[in-house]
Design brief:
With 232 residues, the protein is of the alpha+beta class. It folds into two domains: 175 residues, no CATH class; 34 residues. 38% of the residues lie in helices and 21% in strands. The chain contains seven helices and twelve strands. A six-stranded mixed beta sheet has the order 3-4-5-8-9-12. A two-stranded antiparallel sheet has the order 1-2. Helix 1 crosses helix 3 and helix 5 packs across helix 6.
Length: 232
């Protein structure tokens, strides 16, 4: 059955096929009023992924007996092989008129390892396509703020691979289903208050820091404090 490295090749080939369908991309209805409609984009991408798998099989006959099903939204892939359990993967799709997909949030946990295809819509109607894993495109800086939902960092188009870039290996961020982002935002929160930032999050962290220090002083003897210092 295909693995993550095969999925990377499939993502690259899918992105290349998408880029070759400029007329179809031009005619997609991307929005209806304030609602973003990526249905047509996703359906086209699913067809491109199916074609890309056939290309991959021609280059890699070992996978000839494995069929693929692709369903929107995004590209939800199911690999089917006789006498084997189906194997599921996902390629996430993004589209935007700018080279930076703005800060957002996700209800569940964000898997930074997931492959991503980004369609950058140009003023002349053409589309530039790039691909990578999600964490490659993420923009996480030293002064990031947190919000009241699970964070989804901004995505930068120019950090992603060109459609001609091949042989890119899958690189895994550890513990993708866990809250891997918490240490980053905790370090940023302390850095921000030490640099005089003043959002509501910064004020809350200042109060929290003072509360923790007060509680620590109240509950720690001088001897315990000395032992803690020695252990650092």
């Amino acid at each position: 059955m295909p693995n993550n490295d095969v999925l990377m090749v499939l993502t690259q080939k899918t992105a290349a096929h998408l880029s070759n369908h400029q007329e179809k991309l031009r005619n997609i209805c991307w929005s209806d009023g304030e609602a973003n409609l990526d249905t047509e984009y996703s359906q086209l991408a699913c067809r491109c992924c199916t074609t890309a798998w056939l290309d991959f099989q021609l280059e890699n006959p070992f996978y000839t007996g494995i069929t693929i099903e692709c369903q929107s939204p995004d590209i939800n892939i199911t690999f089917l092989e006789p006498n084997a359990e189906p194997k599921k993967f996902k390629i996430e799709l993004k589209s935007c008129k700018g080279e930076k997909l703005g800060l957002g949030s996700t209800i569940g946990t964000l898997n930074p390892n997931i492959p991503l295809i980004y369609c950058l819509r140009q003023p002349d109607g053409t589309c530039r396509i790039r691909w990578s894993q999600y964490h490659v495109a993420m923009n996480m800086g030293p002064m990031d703020t947190f919000n009241d939902r699970t964070p989804r960092p901004p995505v930068i188009f120019d950090r992603m691979n060109e459609i001609t870039q091949e042989n890119v290996r899958f690189v895994e961020v550890p513990n993708p289903q866990g809250r891997w982002y918490i240490p980053h935002y905790a370090e940023c929160a302390l850095r921000r208050i030490n640099n005089g930032k003043n959002t509501w999050q910064d004020e809350m962290i200042r109060h929290l820091k003072q509360m923790i220090i007060r509680e620590f002083i109240q509950n720690t003897t001088p001897k315990e404090f000395e032992e803690i210092k020695k252990s650092q």
